[in-house]
Write a structure and sequence with these properties.
By secondary structure, the chain is α+β, with helices and mostly antiparallel strands. It contains five helices and ten strands, in the order E-H-H-H-E-E-E-H-E-H-E-E-E-E-E.
């Protein structure tokens, strides 16, 4: 697999980000009827990009996923996490979550939280998140999850699990993170 750069998203990325958001959202059959019945939910706002709160996964010049966050006090919220359907199950989502965790750690934030789509529950649990309550979203209840700062090191910061069992690390490269074949991990 070629390298994937996790970098700050820019205004020029909005068309690509919007496409990933729509295709990824519609890829879950359980969500599709509600989303199509409410097409406004498929419109991606540029607010987080304009405010510098969105990170994009770039593979060979193509946006293949992104994540955005909200920060408030001692909590860091993963607001969005979307991966291009053809790139799912290839480590992109995990790399983006790890990037979000690293940003939170760098800011001294005590915990990372997310309201998980029920079909993504196992993904977040594997990353070290635990459910601490249920919340109501627009269409249904969903698990509210958190990862405490003390557990962040145990979440495998800097390592991406691969389906074939190998691990590669993520190293800092300029304003982003690039996958590499070395065994070092990000501190």
């Amino acid at each position: 697999m070629t390298g994937v750069l996790i970098r700050d998203a820019a205004a020029d990325d909005m068309t690509a980000l919007s496409g990933v958001y729509r295709r990824s959202s519609l890829s879950n059959e359980g969500d599709r009827p509600n989303l199509l019945a409410h097409p406004e939910t498929l419109e991606f706002s540029d607010l987080a990009v304009r405010e510098g709160r969105t990170r994009a996964a770039d593979a060979e010049g193509e946006i293949v996923g992104f994540a955005s966050w909200l920060g408030a006090g001692s909590a860091f919220e993963i607001e969005d996490l979307f991966v291009e359907p053809g790139w799912m199950r290839r480590g992109i989502g995990r790399a983006l979550v790890q990037d979000m965790i690293a940003i939170a750690r760098g800011r001294g934030i005590e915990r990372v939280e997310v309201t998980a789509n029920p079909h993504a529950l196992a993904f977040y649990e594997k990353a070290g998140f635990v459910v601490y309550r249920e919340v109501m979203t627009r269409f249904r209840t969903a698990p509210r999850m958190r990862l405490d700062n003390t557990a962040l090191g145990a979440a495998g910061i800097g390592q991406i699990a691969r389906p074939w069992g190998g691990r590669i690390s993520v190293g800092q490269s300029g304003r982003g993170w690039r996958e590499s074949g070395c065994g070092a991990s990000v501190a």
